[in-house]
Amino acid sequence: MKTILKRSLLAAAFAAAPVGSAFAADQLTMQMNWTADSAHLGFAVAQQQGLYEDRDLDVDLVEGRGSSVAAQLVATGQAELGYADAGAALNVASKGAPIKIIATIWKSGQFGIQYLADSGISEPKDLVGKKLAVSPGSAMLPLIPVFLKANEIDESDVEIVTASESAFIGLLTSGQVDAVSQTPENIVVPLAAQGVEAGNMYFYNYGVPIASLSLVAREDKIAERPEVYQRFVEATAEGWKQAMADPEAAVDALMKTFPETEHSRDDLLKAAEYSFASVCPGGSGDVIAVTSDETWTKMYDVMTTAMELPSDKPVTDYYTQEVAPETDVTCP
Q1: Could you tell me the maximum CA-CA distance found in the chain, to the nearest angstrom?
Q2: Is 164 exposed, middle or buried (0-12, 13-18, 19+ CB in 10 A)?
Q3: Dihedral-angle region of residue 62 (phi above 0 means left; psi in -120 to 50 means alpha; beta otherwise)
Q4: Which of 110, 142, 300, 301 lies at a CB distance of 3.0 to 4.6 Å from 183, suitable for a disulfide?
Q5: What is the pLDDT of residues 61-78, one digit of tens each?
Q6: Kind of pairing, strands 99-104 and 213-218?
Q7: Does the pLDDT at position 205 exceed 60?
């Protein structure tokens, strides 16, 4: 009798509720790492295609002022989610912030080596006897020795030239250096706009696995609402999959979501190629937003030996797989 009564009351509640408002959508604010660009295409697609709404989520995407700021805003409870570089997020967490990475969107960083197509460089060993420009104080600088060692190259066999990043393109095109260490979006794309073809080698693909832009949440919030975060990760992963299937539509979605973006449609399309490569470093079939425990262990070794992250905690203190999508979303 009690069961029948409960069912009757539940049915009455549904009948009385206005259509479309039986359940309030879960609200989430995601603090972005920076202003909108190709690194945010998947989120814009998920927003414009209703992927968040389909999963009962009301998502607010807020442009940011840096990865560390995004991580700190999550740590202090001012945002439910942060989109931040993994290194910056772990650095904040290492100082006691109660945050964890719940998904790696850019499973590989864009850090690497760029060179002109006619330079004779196509793989690490080709850097022997060449000049490589690196900016002093850049995030790439401590990774260069790790990259060289991983590829059995003595540091003395490559001439490191310190220079401002703003001078990199001029140094390459004038032949003053053979290669630079930056990101393809900052070197290959602008060179292409000048009609100059350039190549790129990601550190990730040559022995230096480092994830970059990742989703960060507070530990207590993850414990309170794991299913909400899981729905967000799943919708976001699907957004990236759709973005890769139709880059032009993805750029349109980004420009609609962030109409004040300073990036041109053409530049966003060119940069999209490199964002997609970071989301899917393993190519077709790679699982979007999920980095394996084994790879996390390798990344932690690089971070603690080359990037000055303290090693007093186990790597599992910094990330969780608990809210990964129940069904893998894979790269097309």
Answers
A1: 86
A2: exposed
A3: beta
A4: 110
A5: 999 999 999 999 999 999
A6: antiparallel
A7: yes
Structural domain boundaries enclosing 172: 112-206
Which of 177, 206, 235 finishes a domain?
Answer: 206
CA distance 42 to 60: 14
Q: Are residues 127 and 142 in the same domain?
A: yes
| pLDDT one-digit tens code per residue, 102-146 | 999 999 989 999 999 999 999 999 999 999 999 987 888 999 999
Q: Are 35 and 262 in contact (CB under 8 A)?
A: yes
User: Residues of 289-321 as b/e, b for ≥16 C-beta within 10 angstroms?
Assistant: bbbeeebbebbbebbbebbebeeeeebeebbbe
**Domain identity same for 167 and 103:** no
Which residues are CB-neighbours of 72 under 8 A, at least 6 positions away?
92, 97
Model confidence pTM above 0.90: no
- Ramachandran area for residue 304 (φ above 0: left; ψ -120 to 50: alpha; else beta): alpha
Enter the tokens of residue 288: 């979007």
| Mean pLDDT taken over the chain | 92
**Judgement on whether residues 312 and 215 belong to the same structural domain of the protein:** yes
> 159 and 66, same structural domain?
no
* Extended strands (E) in 139-251: 159-162, 179-182, 198-202, 213-218
Residues 303 and 244 grouped into a single domain: yes
Structure tokens of 189? 């794309």
CATH number at residue 197: 3.40.190.10
Which two structure tokens, joined as six digits, stand for 174?
Answer: 């004038």
Helices and strands (H, E) in the chain, number of each type: 13, 10
Residues 6 or more apart whose CB falls under 8 angstroms from that of 23 comprise 56
Q: Residue 83 belongs to what H/E stretch?
A: strand 81-85
Answer with the one of 206, 221, 250 that is the final residue of a domain. 206
Q: How many separate domains does the chain show? A: 2
Query: Cβ of 61: how many Cβ atoms within 10 Å?
Result: 21
- Pairing mode, strands 57-62 and 26-31: parallel
Report whether 315 contacts 87 (CB < 8 A): no
